[in-house]
Specification:
The structure holds two protein chains of two kinds.
Chain A: H1 2-22, H2 33-38, H3 43-66, H4 76-98, H5 100-106, H6 117-127, H7 132-162, E1 164-165, E2 168-169, H8 184-205
Antiparallel strand pairs in A: 1-2
Helix pairs in contact in A: 1-7, 3-4, 3-6, 3-7, 4-5, 4-6, 6-7
Chain B: H1 2-51, E1 57-68, E2 74-83, E3 89-99, E4 104-111, E5 118-125, H2 139-142, E6 154-156, E7 167-169, H3 175-198
Parallel strand pairs in B: 6-7
Antiparallel strand pairs in B: 1-2, 2-3, 3-4, 4-5
Classes of the chains: A mainly alpha, B alpha+beta.
Chain lengths: ~210, ~210
Amino acid sequence: MATNGQGSVGIYRGTLLAGLWRENPVFRLLLGMCPTLAVTAAVKPALTMGCCVIFVLVCSNIVVSLMRNLLRPHLRILMFTLTISTFVTIADLFLKAFQPEMSAALGPYVPLIIVNCIIICRAEACASKNGLAISVIDAVGMGVGFTITLCALAGVRELLATGKLFEANVMPGWFVPWAAMGMPVGAFVTLGLMLGLVNTITGKKN
Amino acid sequence: MDKVKYFFRQSWLLIVASFCFGLLIAVANAAWQDNIFQNEEDKFNNLVKEMIPDANTTEIVLENVEVRSGKGKKKVTSVRKAVSGDGQCVGWAFTCEGSGFADKIKLVLTVDAGFEKLKGYGVLSSNETPGFGDKIKEPYYRRQFVGAPTAELELVKLGNPEDKDSKIVAVTGATVSSEAVVKIVNTFLGRIKNHMQEKGLIDNGN
């Protein structure tokens, strides 16, 4: 019994940590590239996007896990999309109601979470095959992993593009902002360098 | 009969889920609709107040005015009267929209009480290219519209932006976005002016 309990805890911990590093959606699986490149010009929108993705991931994984035994194979993608779009619409309405500035800053990228590969991937790979607990933990791990990655990218870009972090000046007076880091080219370059760094670290470990 | 049974056996979950999710969205929408509407109103009023500092409140005087933009598309807008603290009309304001470089641009346009000169425009929403097209939000470009005549505006590449005439100098590197703003203003201004003259809200200039 004790061994089983320990085993479950180990599985839960492994599932939670997988999203943070081993199966990080951005750095290891290269999923969700559209918001990763589009909303990482500053930390605030990146954090908001990350929170929206966590909410949608957790809710959709709960629903998919609960109805996994009722799903018809040929209708499952339709059911996933329906579930995800419901929670994305709720997140979008919430932002419009309580965070109008963030809603305006994120523009179409919140509704576009519907087609974010991370969410549909977790619904298909995890929630439709596992129980509620493991599905929720997987969603939290993946969501937090995605959010941390987005914030790390956004932190570097915001710092170099404006000399600020969370809109507060942090760079010395002599620093000349690199405007390009706030543009798409900055997103590609930063992501590429970070992917290279992660691959180097992973390569050394292996 | 067998076909109907088969249809329901296959799709009952989809039908039930659609109903439940629809209900969930309807509840969220009903709960937050007031906040969303209030946020939009606040943004509109703040922009009007910024352009017409004397305006205390705005009141709708014309609703559902149809404006035909390019390609036969129809847009609907409402005209509001900006009223000062002592009840005087200090200008007019209305929303207008059209296609930008990347996405739809939605503006608030304000004109003086006699509908002779523009008071300026404010951007309600746009997703123009950061660093280039989004300069339509900056005072450098917006200032050119302040005091411009309510006649057809013309976009030019060279000129003095300080001149208060119908020539608007484009933002370098963002000609499409600059042109989009001028086109939106021209499309809506002419139609609204005619409509208000027809309704006797302003002099017809004869």
